[in-house]
Write a structure and sequence with these properties.
The protein has 152 residues and is mostly helical. The protein has 4 helices and no strands. Helix 1 runs antiparallel to helix 2. The N and C termini lie far apart (43 Å).
């Protein structure tokens, strides 16, 4: 992917979906009575909204761009953030919620890292590498939290 606006439109869609999913997980964990994990997911939703706003600003978008199906460049034909969400119900336990979030963050990281590795546009390459680094930090945070929850 060499077009900066196309890249940013994908990032915007990915981060918008991430924020929505983290907000859903926040509510699920509040309902389950786990305020610590709900607070973590709320924080992650905030990061996603911040990344969304940053991508909007960098692209000069005033409204969220809508990509036509022929413009989508998702691996496996599905947004990294949506993988694994099909079939999720309200009975997701804490560990399951964390593992679902980890899957999405890993796929987001792989998406950005893949673009950074192959893009011929230096701006896209740099920005994708930056986004991949941020996703790697989210992966590390989730892995630590999963270790704490699993060993409790």
């Amino acid at each position: 992917m060499d077009d900066i606006h196309l890249f940013l439109a994908h990032a915007i869609q990915l981060e918008r979906e991430a924020a929505r999913h983290y907000e859903e997980l926040t509510e699920d964990m509040k309902t389950a009575g786990n305020t610590d994990v709900a607070d973590f997911f709320r924080k992650m939703a905030g990061f996603s909204r911040k990344h969304l706003a940053d991508a909007m600003e960098r692209g000069g978008f005033r409204v969220v761009p809508e990509l036509r199906p022929d413009q989508l460049r998702w691996p496996d034909g599905i947004s990294p953030e949506n993988a694994g969400w099909e079939g999720v119900d309200g009975f997701l336990d804490v560990l399951g919620a964390l593992e679902l979030a980890l899957l999405a963050e890993r796929r987001g990281h792989a998406f950005y890292a893949g673009i950074a590795a192959v893009s011929n546009n230096i701006k896209v390459k740099r920005m994708a590498a930056e986004f991949a680094e941020e996703e790697a930090e989210h992966v590390a945070e989730l892995e630590k939290l999963i270790d704490r929850v699993a060993s409790a």
